[in-house]
Each structure stands twice: as structure tokens, then as C-alpha cells.
Amino acid sequence: MTFRLGKSNPRPRRFSSPEMSASHDVERYRQGYPGLQDNPEADRNLMFYQGKIKSEPMGDLIDNIHKEWHGDYKRLEIHHGYIQWLFPIREMGMNWDSQPLQKFEANKIKASPELMERFIRSYRLMLDFYGMVLENESTGKIKRGSNYRDRYDNLENRAHNWLRITRILKCMGELGLEHYKIKFIRHVLREFWENELRQCFQSLKNYWIPVIKSKDEREKIYAYFEELRARNEEKGETKGKKENGQQSGKEQSGKEQSGKEHQHSDDANAQKSTSEKQQEADRSQEQSSSESAPEKQTG
Fold first, then answer.
1. What is the pLDDT of residues 118-174, one digit of tens each?
2. Cα–Cα distance between 227 and 233 in angstroms, integer?
3. CB within 8 Å of 249: residues ≥ 6 apart
4. H or E segment at 144?
5. What is the pTM of this model?
């Protein structure tokens, strides 16, 4: 489906080279990494979530990260070695002290309510860092946090966080939280049409939506995007009509006021003319009386 920003800005189906790479990456993910074999001795992600080992480098036990790192935005921004432990995926990341997630590890984490609760706390930690709040743990619905203004600005201007979000979404899929992905993306789409998180559009388009495994769900997301776009355009048209109506009303009011001023001026001129005529008549009468007075005195 063509993904577009507006009527005058269609997005072509032909992909650029980075988009080709993105398409290959997400397709491999959705297919479950064909040919990739588990290493039965690689269990460090499982041990980390069980609280048995610390993240590396310069990391900590998972419960300590949840308690002590929450809200420490500077540390979460500049430390690049924790995200691979909190959100392991089946690909090797940029932290060589971490380990790709194994299928058997994912299955054991999914099967443990305790470990899944830890995963939810990891997600809450990062949502707060991004200015969001998990509103409903069952559905995965999220909303703006009270800190969203500063955190949205940081997210828009720190591109490595877009890569982190791709990792988080992929990890959700490995742990059976596909519906969490959808709620996150729907939230970002709503914010996009509120003129927020605009710099994230290419990641949203090329990675975040495509990592949804179900084609039907992806199509629903594209349809939701178009629905929001249509609402936004309708809102803009309504606003424009309202502003035009207000401007027209101001012009009409100005014309009425101008008419009143002209009428007032005409009435004043008429009153002035009548007054002048009366004054002229009074002067004429006084002159007539003055001219007849000497005749009376001599008679």
C-alpha cells in the first residue's frame, strides 16, 4: 500500500537503496530468520532476566536497572550497552558483550509470569524515557506522559533511539506481544498527525510498521494512517472555513461601523446647517430692529 503524507505528496512504491535494505531486514525477521540455528549453550539473556547476571559493559542486575535507572535520562541516552540486554533479539547488535536471543530462551521467558513482568517493567522504563506511559497492561495501549514535551524533542533529535525502538518492537514479537507493537505504532501515528514525532517518519514507514508480522494487521495500520490523514485535512478545512467566516464577520462589522460613522457625520452636518441657518435668521432680526430704532426716537 502506498504510504503518503497528504494529497499532494504521494509516496512512490519504488524503494531507494536504504529502503531495499530495510525491506530485506524486516522480511527476514517476519519469516523467523530462515536457517538460523539455536545454540543450546547460549543462555545469557535468560540468566539476565532471571536476575542471575549483570548486563555488560558497565551494567547491572535487571531489577536494579528498573529501580535505579528509571528517569535517569542522561544515563539512558548515553549508555549504549543496556538496550541489547533488556530487549534481546535474534540478531547480533552493536554490543559485543551481549548475545543474540535464542528460541529456547524466548520460550522460557514467555512461559514465566515473573520474567514477563520484568519485561513489562523494561518496556515501562523505555516508554518513560520516550515521554509515554503504558496505560493498559493487558491491551498495550499507551498515552503521552506528563514529561512528553522534552522527551519527544529528544526522541526526534537522537536518531539512535529510532534503532532502539525497532529492537524493542522486534523483541515484543519474539515474546508473544505482537499486540503491544500495534498499540505503540497507533500511538505514534496519532502523534504524527498532531505534528509530533515528525522526524521519526522514515523509521515508522520502513521499520516499525513492517515488523508487524501479520499482513492483515499491517494493512489495518495503513488504513488507520489514511483515516487520521483524512481527519486532519477535514479539521484543517473546517478551521479554514471558520477563520474565513470570522474574517468576513469582521469585514461586515467594519462596514456597518463605517456606515454608522457616515450617518453620524451626515446628521451632525445637518444639525450644523440648521444651527447656522437659525443663527443667520437671528442676526437678520437683530439688524432689522437696530435699523428701525432711530425712527422711533425722533418721532
1. 999 999 999 999 999 999 999 999 999 999 999 999 999 999 999 999 999 999 999
2. 10
3. none
4. strand 142-144
5. 0.76
